[in-house]
Amino acid sequence: MYLVPFDLASNFWEEPQFWLGLIFVTFPLNFLVYGLNDFTDGKADSLNPRKGNYLFGAKLSKKELEPVFWQICAVILPFVALFSYLEGREMFLLLLFMIVVNIIYNFKPFRLKERPPFEIIIQVGYVFTALFSILLNNLEMLPWQTLLYLSLFAFQAHIAGEIMDIEPDRLVGKKTTAVFIGRKKAKLLMLFLLLFEAYILKFWFDDWVLSGFLVAFSFWLILDIFVFFKDRPYSVTQMKIFGIAINVSAILSMIWVLYSGNLLHPNF
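Structure (tokenized):
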């Protein structure tokens, strides 16, 4: 999300603010997002067989999680102060909004992570990482078509995680869209989003590479739904294979998005 607004021709890597922003989104912002998630989801994570590793995240005791909230504050607030000093009130309000989104997602009385379908819709918050990048690096605003694609991507990625977590979420009474509608319907929803994304990439951005990859992934998901797994849960080994494949494809797609610049230029 941070890299999408950049154009290779601008030599953005020569600017110190680019690296400062990249450091921020790589650790402090991630620590905010996933630290708060772990802080408020300890019980579900303790029963989740895929947790407890670098691929899928921590599995910590309540005592180990106690200092996380204050550690997040210590890491994030200096960056908020620095970026607000550099870019002014707009940056402060943007970062404040990003923090508030994470609070209402994780904490009562809002706790949107257990209010389907709002736990999916609020994933649009990830797109504000791109807006942060634009403001910090004085870039052109992304087209609305790009923002829509990035939002759908965030929705689809979140549903994939929910599908893998149905059993531990059910055990602790955690309500998610995947728990509510069931594994097969959640996969069909993910398939719809994948095909919509592929359509946008092909016909709005003329991107054969990313759209082709999503179509291939959609064919695999169809086989998953109707032939291979159907309504059965994945094993931990299978989830780890999927996780590695997703990370590899994410890195490759990040390189392609930067190289091609297609997402900066819709055809209408």
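DSSP finds 14 helices and no strands in the chain. The mean pLDDT is 96.
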